[in-house]
């Protein structure tokens, strides 16, 4: 857990200090009010369902077959059938994964990288790529398949941030995505893809 928890919390702390020093508010990291918050919640829940299906039907099997390995989810083995652990993991997913990771990587890191690299499209693409690779590397406990899948997911969540013009979009999508994954694991165990 410390592999991904500590760096995310450190980056969130850096974001808070950075905002205070710069005298900026959370909006500088992408926190913008949605015109229709409940619509955004519904859209991101729908996105998470579609993203999960795409992962299970295509991305996970392709990465498994190309690498000859499977994502190592043994760290979640105790979750299957344990209601208390499911509730703990879902809460942690929303607080640590959805909120902290998105603020740290899609909010703070992408924003600061574009401050350094410039605000044009090539700079934004570079910032998203760098932050996504770093995010993927935080998931080494899941093996290289987990690193690749996490990095790709991070890039997709970055697109959501800019497409929806708010950091709340990837926070919601990430939370729903992890919730779906944990509920699936609770009932059925690991999902290594449909083929």
Automatic annotation (TrEMBL):
Residue spans crossing the bilayer: 6-23, 44-63, 83-104, 116-137, 143-160, 167-187
The organism's superkingdom is given as Bacteria
**Sorted alphabetically, which keywords does the UniProt record give?**
Hydrolase, Membrane, Transmembrane, Transmembrane helix
Q: Which GO terms describe its biological process?
A: CAAX-box protein maturation
Any one Gene Ontology MF annotation carried by this entry is: endopeptidase activity
Specify the CAAX prenyl protease 2/Lysostaphin resistance protein A-like domain's residue ranges. 86-178
Give the coiled coil ranges: none
Q: What EC number(s) would the UniProt record show?
A: 3.4.-.-
EC supergroup of this enzyme: hydrolase
According to UniProt, the name of this protein is CPBP family intramembrane glutamic endopeptidase
Tell me what organism the protein belongs to.
Pedococcus sp. KACC 23699
């Amino acid at each position: 857990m410390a592999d991904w928890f500590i760096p995310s919390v450190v980056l969130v702390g850096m974001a808070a200090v950075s905002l205070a020093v710069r005298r900026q508010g959370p909006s500088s990291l992408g926190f913008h009010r949605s015109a229709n918050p409940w619509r955004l919640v519904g859209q991101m829940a729908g996105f998470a369902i579609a993203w999960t299906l795409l992962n299970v039907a295509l991305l996970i099997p392709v990465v498994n077959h190309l690498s000859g390995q499977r994502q190592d989810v043994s760290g979640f083995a105790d979750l299957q059938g344990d209601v208390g652990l499911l509730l703990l993991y879902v809460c942690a997913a929303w607080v640590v994964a959805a909120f902290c990771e998105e603020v740290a990587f899609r909010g703070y890191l992408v924003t600061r990288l574009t401050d350094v690299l410039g605000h044009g499209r090539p700079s934004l693409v570079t910032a998203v790529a760098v932050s996504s690779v770093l995010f993927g590397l935080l998931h080494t406990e899941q093996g290289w398949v987990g690193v690749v899948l996490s990095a790709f997911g991070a890039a997709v969540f970055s697109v959501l941030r800019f497409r929806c013009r708010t950091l709340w979009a990837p926070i919601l999508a990430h939370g729903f995505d992890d919730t779906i994954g944990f509920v699936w694991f609770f009932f059925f165990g690991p999902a290594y893809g449909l083929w």
